[in-house]
Write a structure and sequence with these properties.
By secondary structure, the chain is an alpha+beta fold. It has three domains: 20-311, alpha-galactosidase from lactobacil brevis (Beta-galactosidase, Chain A, domain 5, Distorted Sandwich); 322-541, Alpha-Beta Barrel (TIM Barrel); 634-740, Immunoglobulin-like (Sandwich). It contains eleven helices and 36 strands. Strands 5, 6, 7, 8, 11, 12, 14, 15, 19 and 20 form a ten-stranded antiparallel β-sheet that branches. Helix 6 runs parallel beside helix 7 (495-513) and helix 8 packs parallel to helix 9. It is globular and about 80 Å long.
Length: 741
């Protein structure tokens, strides 16, 4: 079914005369009650309505306890409940009342942030205050080919003097009170995207970020709301929502004495009141929304398809297998060592080498993390032939070359800081608060000169060395003190918003000039896994913690909203540098293969046998790369279930191939695991099983055997709990990767 409006509306811009307005995606309907001179009201969001059903929709039966307004403003009517908009008018009045003036609805064909063409419909609802010349537009945009809707607002000041915005959420989404559970994600450095599920009770669930620059480290700005009990993977009604913003945010789910839970999302207003001058317009970041009757997995699949096509840069291109130098050598960069690592990754089948931190600095060489950020010139003591020599070696070794930068930061020990101390974020009259290494500072991207500088870091590299195929863009500090040396004293509260706007401007300039370079989004690990930034990036670093066991949990949580093609997942050395755990190389390979496979290791320290296993894993990954990077994900058995087992699989769109992952998380004697039933297959097709990354002396009992999709989904396969290897190679780790075709 194509994206449609109600049949009573033509697909041309239309002035409102009817009250009930429906927007459609292929399988969903969203309905508002719009009446001129009143506040816009929510009526319905769920499976697509049949013809005539819209006529039966009505507001909840008890108007005294039902407030389904989608854009309440503070002060004139709404003072007891949470609101979307709060402002102080030029005369000091705190009351605002936004009523419908008109609305239009029209088909659109525009460009998504990643450059892709998209089609759908756009509903624009114009609201005006009857007393003050304040105008708000509510926007609801659908996609014709995916069950996704985005909504946002803009606020225009028509007064003769400046007004102050103190709260600026997007339109809220009322969710009828029932047995509703919210799945969301918290974390910390090296422990990102930890899944938690809460039943919505009276009171407020608040999910927020105030880091300033890395808004996905501690909490994620995505939620899933299961409408009929605890979340289930493949069944049940679930709403998924993501705020497309990389700055400070706040998500609030308010449950009061009415018949609804109220989902609010938007910019965090804390210390961010915004002064809107005469005639200026403030636009909020979009919220992306989908509805699924197929559980959390259905929401995930929709977000993954939408992301690959419309949000992620180069979401339709296979990702290269790379070796990153960080965990292998840390700051010990040198020309010979980089050349050897390029040769090693090529010998194992890799396609790209990325030189990480430690390659730059002239007056202040980057030997540790306490200097040099901002001085993006080659340290010729480490690299006497410069980047030219590295590119020469990459051509010789037959791999692409990539490089690490952290362009939004500087150190007090740097030539940049000596020249431009006025470029850093710091409170007036105070010394700047320093971060990593006791010297790191954030540059103030509200300043256009700083924006030009950050752009020049990338521009100079890619102009001078156009063969650079990949950039790892890092950001390893929060905003540690509040203050801009660029913004006026009256606009200091604009800092957090202006930083985000400045970053996006830089990214847009980079992509306009360099649309093809691959750029990884890294921020102390997964600190910038958000769709506000990803249209300009190809992937993100899931976490600085590369321990395979903990990565299962982090990548599991991340997969709720992000596809495998976006998740950089690397094979690392043991004991792991973050948790000091020793896992088997087979286990590390099998976990890394479930995302965008790479390596984070020093190959010269590996044995020939270890290199052979990695060579096999890379070869096997190449054979199934399209399935994992573009297939539909099915999460089969959660690591959070508490029974020491995790399993998932990827299935192609036409269901002819699939890759099945099975990981044992802990080993006990007399241990019993459930048999994992597969999902997403064609029940009438026969699938032949082939194990990838095999280390066993004997093949599995079902190797080369064929099973119907129905059998695999209804019964499943008995997976051995351990590997059949020589006694000297036995360990307590076990995992399997199976190809079905």
């Amino acid at each position: 079914m194509k994206s449609l409006l109600l049949p009573l509306f033509a697909l041309t811009p239309l002035f409102a005369s009817a009250e009930k307005v429906e927007l459609r995606t292929p399988n969903n309907s969203f309905v508002l009650d719009l009446n001129k001179g009143a506040e816009p009201q929510f009526l319905y969001y769920g499976p697509a309505l049949h013809a005539g059903d819209i006529n039966h929709l009505q507001r909840f039966s008890d108007p005294n306890w039902s407030r389904p307004e989608v854009y309440p403003a503070y002060g004139a009517v709404h003072t007891q409940s949470e609101v979307c908009l709060a402002m102080r008018h030029a005369d000091g009045n705190l009351s605002t009342h936004m009523l419908i003036e008109d609305w239009t609805i029209a088909p659109i064909s525009d460009q998504a942030p990643n450059g892709a063409s998209r089609k759908g419909n756009l509903l624009t609802v114009t609201l005006k205050d009857p007393v003050y010349p304040t105008t708000v537009h509510l926007y609801y945009q659908t996609y014709e080919d995916v069950d996704m809707m985005e909504y946002w607002t803009d606020i225009t000041n028509g007064e003769k003097q400046t007004v102050t915005l103190t709260q600026f959420y997007n339109p809220l989404l009322p969710i009828h009170r029932d047995n509703v559970y919210c799945t969301h994600f918290h974390g910390s450095w090296a422990a990102e995207a930890q899944l938690v599920e809460d039943r919505l009770q009276n009171g407020m669930l608040v999910i927020k970020d105030k880091d300033g620059l890395r808004n996905a480290t501690a909490n994620r700005n995505e939620v899933m709301m299961s409408l009929d009990g605890p979340a289930r993977e493949n069944e049940g009604a679930v709403i998924g929502a993501s705020l497309l913003y990389t700055g400070n945010y706040r998500i609030t789910i308010d449950t009061d004495d009415s018949d609804y839970h109220y989902y609010f999302s938007g910019i965090n207003p804390d210390n961010s009141e915004y002064h809107l001058r005469k005639g200026e317009t403030f636009t909020t970041p979009r919220t992306a929304l989908t509805y699924s009757t197929k559980g959390t997995n259905g929401v995930s699949q929709t977000f993954h398809r939408w992301a690959r096509k419309y949000q992620l840069r180069h979401g339709n291109q296979e990702r290269m297998i790379l070796l990153n130098s960080w965990e292998g050598v840390y700051f010990d960069i040198n020309q010979k060592g980089m050349d050897q690592m390029m040769q090693d990754i090529k010998s194992m089948g890799g396609e790209l080498f990325v030189m990480d931190d430690g390659w730059f600095g002239d007056k202040y060489p980057r030997l540790t993390d306490n200097s040099s950020l901002g001085d993006w010139v080659v340290d010729t003591n480490k690299l006497p032939d410069g980047i030219e020599g590295l590119l020469r070696d990459a051509r010789k070794d037959g791999v692409k070359f990539g490089i690490w930068i952290e362009p939004e930061m500087t150190c007090t020990t740097s030539e940049l800081y000596e020249k431009h101390p006025d470029w850093v974020i710091k409170a007036p009259g105070r010394e700047p608060v320093r971060g990593r290494g006791g010297t790191q500072l954030c540059l103030d991207l509200s300043n256009p000169k700083v924006q030009d500088f950050v752009f020049s870091v990338v521009d100079n590299l890619l102009t001078d060395y156009p063969e650079i195929a990949y950039i790892k863009w890092d950001a390893n500090a929060p905003v540690m003190n509040h203050g801009s040396q660029y913004l006026t004293k009256d606009d200091q509260s604009h800092l957090y918003i202006a930083l985000h706007e400045g970053l996006i401007k830089v990214c847009q300039r980079i992509r306009a000039k360099y649309p093809d370079v691959i750029i990884q989004d890294c921020a102390s690990g997964g600190g910038r896994a958000n769709y506000g930034l990803l249209p300009y990036f190809d992937e993100f670093w899931v976490s600085d913690n590369t321990d395979a066991l903990q990565r299962i949990y982090m990548q599991w949580g991340t997969s709720y909203f992000y596809p495998a093609i976006a998740m950089a997942s690397h094979i690392s050395a043991v004991p792991n540098h973050a948790v000091f755990r020793t896992t088997s190389l087979k286990f590390r390979c099998d976990v890394a293969m479930s995302g965008r496979l790479g390596m984070e290791i020093q190959p010269k320290n590996m044995t020939d046998e270890e290199k052979a296993l990695c060579r096999q894993a890379i070869s096997d990954y190449k054979s199934v790369r399209p399935v994992i990077q573009f297939g539909d994900l099915y999460r089969l058995h959660s690591p959070y279930a508490g029974d020491n087992l995790a399993s998932e699989m990827y299935v192609t769109e036409n269901k002819d191939r699939a890759v099945f992952f099975w990981w044992k998380l802990e080993t006990f004697k007399n241990q019993h695991f459930p048999r994992v039933k597969m999902a997403g297959l064609d029940p009438d097709r026969m699938y032949t099983i082939h194990e990838l990354n095999r280390i066993d002396n004997k093949p599995l009992s079902f190797e080369g055997q064929s099973f119907s999709g129905a059998y695999l989904m209804n019964t499943g396969l008995d997976i051995p709990y351990s590997h059949d290897v020589d006694y000297s190679k036995l360990n307590d780790w076990s995992s399997r990767v199976l190809l079905l075709e």
